[in-house]
Amino acid sequence: MPCVLLDSTLREGELFKVLPLKKRLRVAELLVEAGIRRVEVTVDYPPRTSFEDNVKLVNFLRDRGVQVVMHGRAFRRDVEAMSRYDLDGVAAYFAVSQIHLDYKLGGINYEDAKSRMLEAVELVKPLGLEYVRVTYEDASRLFNERRFDILDDYLKFTSELRSAGATLVSMPDTAGLMTPREAREFTKYCIERSHLPIATHFHNDYGFASANTIESILAGASEAHVTILGIGDRNGIADLYEVVAPLQDVHGYDLGVRREELARIYREFSRLTGVQIPWRHPLSEEAKTIRAGVHQSMVIKKPEGYMPKKKLEYDMDAVKYAVTPYMSHKLIIEIAKLNGHDLNEVDARRIVEEIIKRVVTTGRKGSPRELAQYLSEALGREVKEDLIRRFFGEERAYVLLKLRPQADASELVQDLATWEEIDYIDEVYGDVDIILKGRVQINGVNLVEKLRAKFQDEIEELRVLITD
Question: Counting beta carbons within 10 angstroms of the beta carbon of residue 306, is it exposed (0 to 12), middle (13 to 18) or buried (19 or more)?
Answer without folding.
Answer: middle
